From TrEMBL:
A Pfam family: GerE
An annotated Gene Ontology molecular function: DNA binding
TM region positions: none
Keywords: DNA-binding, Phosphoprotein
Ranges of residues in domain HTH luxR-type: 142-207
Record protein name field: DNA-binding response regulator
Keyword DNA-binding part of the UniProt annotation: yes
Gene Ontology biological process terms, A to Z: phosphorelay signal transduction system; regulation of DNA-templated transcription
Response regulatory domain ranges (all copies): 3-119
Residues found modified as 4-aspartylphosphate: 54
Presence of keyword DNA-binding: yes
Sections of the chain in a coiled coil: none
């Protein structure tokens, strides 16, 4: 029996996934969460084999929670189920420890296939993600600027692009304001950008935020 956790801020999505997964005899939903912080509590209190997690959620997002979830449950599979296309987030997230990445427009059967693959301790790569990984290996120097950021830099970049202040970011990521400012300086240099509005424009243009 594969034990599953569902993390999504929309109750109707969680309900639909729970109903769909319950139709498969080898899958059992152990619990649900509405954001990254609740996901960490869920993993702390329940035995989860595969966590099915959205990215964009209020409070602590899936991206913010990923590193902490990995630290708390290194053997647990984490399948990202996001509304964003693979080319925008998949490579960064797989590099940061996600076991697989699916767009919410995928066929429901593919979610089950991905869960079963990940439960075996393997990664689930769609043909699109596999191609993106291959392209990145072949032309590292041509990778988009945001793919050259570290995990923390990428988190800070997205929050700045959404208009969050250094104080807000420091609080949500448990960092000092000075450390956030250091990350901001570093990512600005890497991306050759000069202001927060440049960051927002870049993120919107590359469809990293709505």
């Amino acid at each position: 029996m594969i034990k599953i956790g569902i993390v999504d801020d929309h109750a109707i999505v969680r309900s639909g996934l729970r109903q769909f997964l319950s139709e498969h005899v080898d899958l059992r939903v152990e619990g649900e969460a509405a954001n990254g912080r609740e996901a960490i509590d869920l993993v702390r209190n329940k035995e989860i084999d595969v966590l099915l997690m959205d990215l964009s959620m209020p409070g602590q997002s899936g991206l913010d929670a990923l590193a902490m979830l990995r630290a708390k449950a290194p053997d647990m599979g984490i399948l990202i189920l996001s509304g964003y296309p693979e080319e925008h987030y998949a490579i960064n997230l797989i590099r940061q420890g996600a076991s697989g990445y699916l767009n919410k427009e995928c066929e429901p059967a593919e979610i089950v296939e991905a869960i079963r693959t990940i439960a075996l301790g393997r990664r689930y790569l769609t043909p699109t993600v596999a191609e993106l990984l291959a392209q990145q290996l072949n032309r590292k120097d041509d990778a988009p600027p945001h793919e050259q950021l570290s995990e923390r830099e990428f988190q800070v970049f997205l929050k700045l692009a959404k208009g969050e202040t250094a104080g807000d970011i420091a609080k949500s990521l448990s960092l000092s304001v000075k450390t956030v400012s250091t990350y901001r300086t570093r990512l600005m240099e890497k991306m050759s950008l000069s202001s927060n509005s440049d960051l927002t424009y870049y993120a919107l243009k590359n469809r990293l935020i709505d």
